[in-house]
Amino acid sequence: MKTFFNVSDLGNLTQALAEAREVKNNRFGFQPLGKNKTLLMIFFNNSLRTRLSTQKAAMNLGMNVIVLDVNAGAWKLETERGVIMDGDNSEHLLEAIPVMASYCDLIGIRSFAGLVEREFDYAETIVNQFVAYSGRPVFAMETATVHPLQAFADLITIEEHKKSERPKVVLTWAPHCRALPQAVPNSFAEWMNAADVDFVITHPKGYELDPKFAGNIKVEYDQRKAFEGADFIYAKNWSCPGVTRPADYGKILCNDPAWTVDQEHMSWTNNAYFMHCLPVRRGLIVTDDVIESPQSLVIPEAANREISAEVVIKRILEGL
Amino acid sequence: MKTFFNVSDLGNLTQALAEAREVKNNRFGFQPLGKNKTLLMIFFNNSLRTRLSTQKAAMNLGMNVIVLDVNAGAWKLETERGVIMDGDNSEHLLEAIPVMASYCDLIGIRSFAGLVEREFDYAETIVNQFVAYSGRPVFAMETATVHPLQAFADLITIEEHKKSERPKVVLTWAPHCRALPQAVPNSFAEWMNAADVDFVITHPKGYELDPKFAGNIKVEYDQRKAFEGADFIYAKNWSCPGVTRPADYGKILCNDPAWTVDQEHMSWTNNAYFMHCLPVRRGLIVTDDVIESPQSLVIPEAANREISAEVVIKRILEGL
Amino acid sequence: MKTFFNVSDLGNLTQALAEAREVKNNRFGFQPLGKNKTLLMIFFNNSLRTRLSTQKAAMNLGMNVIVLDVNAGAWKLETERGVIMDGDNSEHLLEAIPVMASYCDLIGIRSFAGLVEREFDYAETIVNQFVAYSGRPVFAMETATVHPLQAFADLITIEEHKKSERPKVVLTWAPHCRALPQAVPNSFAEWMNAADVDFVITHPKGYELDPKFAGNIKVEYDQRKAFEGADFIYAKNWSCPGVTRPADYGKILCNDPAWTVDQEHMSWTNNAYFMHCLPVRRGLIVTDDVIESPQSLVIPEAANREISAEVVIKRILEGL
Q1: Where does carbamoyl phosphate bind (chains A, B, C) (predicted)?
Q2: Nearest-CA neighbor of A136 among A39, A44, A53, A64?
């Protein structure tokens, strides 16, 4: 495996899930693969789960890990071409990328959407430069449009908890006080479309996800109808993806508290599990009682981030 | 050992000191214990000695170490319950704790006193949440009220330098330009009360330490009388513990330079060693000549932080 | 080797270059040297290449590495003596140095020139305190006046690419929007003077480097004449070294864009390679087409930082 951004990078999903189980049962069993190999984790944005779980996964595999916080302790990086660099940015990505790559064997990168220019974000302008100029395998630790380590961990978690062959999984939008990227719902939609589940999306009008990820899944705009019979409720806020009205890209179109997932919402489901990628704003996305209930899977989901990361890094190491 | 906050967590002190000697002579001799084990060090506050010495101790034991600075590179954490999270804090400790715990085997935590609400600080509200919700062994890298890795290192240092069976050890308050927590004097008092020493505390009126730590040790308010015959002078500033007047909690009640430890002060002693946990403000706590004198133990004390941390982590690993 | 600041610390340069080749071909071949040894990297200033390459080099050698960013996550350090410390700085270097040293086996330090007091900078006041008080081997990761890991990597790169026995190497000043230290040109000049090359320096009047580093190399003030017949062009900005007019120390005396290295400049040379230590400001130091041309060595130079660091750390380990 040379890159990891989309579900297709994993190939056969059933095999990938089997490998996840194997890794989970034998986390330290693949250390010869990682010996004298170095993972460079590059953060343009904050991180808790991804920072810890990816580092842990690489150490499980016997690797060396270097963490670089670009905005703390390193030079600020210029990301655009043809600029006279007389401002704050001391170094150009075009130099920084091959330089950073020369000190490692594979690169994990976190670079969020700016939510200003849809085209810039959805072209994955920053991350594609790493793919083009690093000469190293690159995997996403959340980019402008995708968060596949999260989606893979979510799928592993659903697989571990499903009670029927083909469970009903609902992705529901929920309110938030800030404009958030679409990376998590994009990847979750893409992965659920590829998985053996009955997948439904529900959100207020205007929040339609890019078809590149959501495919032709029908949106159920009535949240209650969407929740009926659900086995898994996956809550997440996202800002306007700008699919129907590009001018609204990155905007907050709705803050209706009726979309907050509470006990009443959960009562409409088939005793569904509650999922969220975290960090979660309590009182906005979900109520305290739902997230603290026995049906809440937010902690097992997060714990599976170590597993999804280990499978992905293991496969990249095997391909070196 | 499951937690390390108080002197009682170590059990028999004589045995613990013997183990410290053994570890100091054979720092790398216990690496099988740490193989494939991960220490997560969580800092809510700055650190130099604790950061380096604890990391070194864990690496001596063959462990993997992940350092998390909560206020740099991670999300800001909400620590109170029942809040609608529409402010700066992106994540709740109640999620963050079990998530962080899922990527490690033991947790070291630094979380200073806020010095605003005595009850909040002295209930160890933050740290107790880690103990309650992490499911992992947790040890203090200085909390709101205790700094036991420092006190243990201090005791090791006294043991290495004492010239009599039962030396006289004096904890003296000294002035400082900022309001400081009571964690260091609390733990030092608690540990000296448990050790085989003649222990005296001296400070201006109003600085009485909480009896939970100071026990029923008599305070000698006359600094000169306290210093007479002393074998070890342990200087430290602390703000008002609020024991006699809760309204004064966290306040600076005195900045009398007569309390600064200088050569004249040391001349009252039995050629005592000078100790301080560092960082120290020269010119306020102690004069240049005293801290640079041959009787100054501040560097050996700091070096023993590696040893106290290694003993504590070793015991936790043995109990996993 | 106990310290690494100047070219003379390496001894015979031909042997050092041979050792660099050996290390480059066998990066992981010296791990027994580093086992249970800890490198402490102390940064008072930002870093990308040095941070990553030095860490990688130490991990190649099987060492443990601790990275300390003094201004992020640690206490602010007082660097002057005889001060009453009632300001921002919580700890004095005179305590911090031996403390930090007690947790490691060798120290790499980055501490840039302040560019305010020439005497303070050129006396290497900060770094010399580390040498004097740490009791550990100390090497420069760029100090106030030298950057020898860069110069050594530059020499390795020239050695790998030279087409004649004794190539012509030109160090050219180039414009920049900020006042920069002289560490890189100082070390480059010092190393080129010691190497078997025909070395020329060119810069506007007033930018004369300190003879301690530049020796008695004649400066060619006509940039075009200097470039004629050159095999390697090494571009770098630096602020006034204050050799001829101490009052100008650290000032920008010239921002003439005619000094920017572009294709026309390169056409004056013997099809020279272009070199720069990075980070580089495109449009000021060099044009996009030159730095992206096949003659540009900026990436191989940076990659050789891993090698120069590994040779230096290896020699220090051998001397422990």
Answers
A1: 47-50, 75, 110, 147-150, 277-278, 305
A2: A39
